[in-house]
Amino acid sequence: MSTPSPLLTAITPTTGRASLDALVESIDGQTAHAMVYHILLWDDVRAQGAREPRSYDGPDRLSLVLQAAAEETARRRVPRCARSG
After folding, report:
1. Cβ pair 50, 16 in contact under 8 A
2. Is 80 helix (H, G, I), strand (E, B) or coil?
3. CB neighbour list of residue 54: distance below 8 Å, 6 or more residues apart
């Protein structure tokens, strides 16, 4: 009976710089005895010339675009009290 390979999840926050392609290639080429699932976290900031986030998606990789979450966090911030004086 074979033992299932351990699962490793890599989480990468990114703006889509050119170096992301090299990182994705490196993770895809890992020879560790584990299945690697790669999550790319995006917000509304993009590096110049960045590929579309969904273009990185595949069977072992998912792009999560968190624009709505960033906007919601900004709305929830409590305003600072004005200084008296």
Report:
1. yes
2. coil
3. 63
